[in-house]
Amino acid sequence: MMKRKVNEREMEPSKPKRLHFDMGAAVSMVKNLMSSANAVPFLRKGRFEDCEDKMYLEDVLTRVKDGSHRDIDGVFNDIYKVLNTKRDGNEIQLDDHDKQVYDEADALIMAGKMMITAKSLQKQIEDVLRVDKQND
User: For the purposes of burial, counting CB atoms within 10 Å of the CB of 50, is it exposed (0-12), middle (13-18) or buried (19 or more)?
Assistant: First the structure.
């Protein structure tokens, strides 16, 4: 078996890529997540009572819009915090109080599907926001 020659650049430790924060892209991404059918347990709209103890996707959107986040990692940390919060079943207020929208098991499945979507969006947005060193 032949050994390949090692290039000098391969020997240098790679520097992590910096990401440029684009508020418009972050807002669009959070709204995209909020429009998913699986997002129902993670939306504040339609709750029985004011749920100040839990964080919802609307809270993430508000924090992005008001400038609380200066990088995309902070946005995704909040999104993952929302998706990892335990949700009870049937938290949504309906006209028909006997009808159950989802139960705890459904909320867990929805959280898993939303996590997959969020991780996919994170990869896509990081690719878009990647800044080459030449642009510094």
Answer: exposed
Backbone angles phi, psi at 45, to 5 degrees: -60, 130
Q: What's the CA gap between 46 and 113, in Å, rounded?
A: 21
Instruction: Answer left, alpha or beta for residue 33, where phi above 0 means left and psi between -120 and 50 means alpha.
Output: alpha
Helix (H) or strand (E) holding 5: none
CB 135 within 8 A of CB 32: no
Q: Tell me: the pLDDT tens digits for 90-115?
A: 565 555 555 667 778 888 899 999 99
Residue 112 contacts by C-beta under 8 Å, 6 or more apart in sequence?
none
Task: Identify the CA nearest to 61 among candidates 87, 31, 22.
Answer: 31
Q: What are the CA-CA distances from residue 84 to residues 15, 32, 53, 99, 122 (Å)?
A: 31, 19, 14, 26, 16
Give the C-alpha distances (Å, rounded to integers) separating 27 from 92, 102, 115. Answer: 24, 27, 18
Q: What is the pTM of this model?
A: 0.71
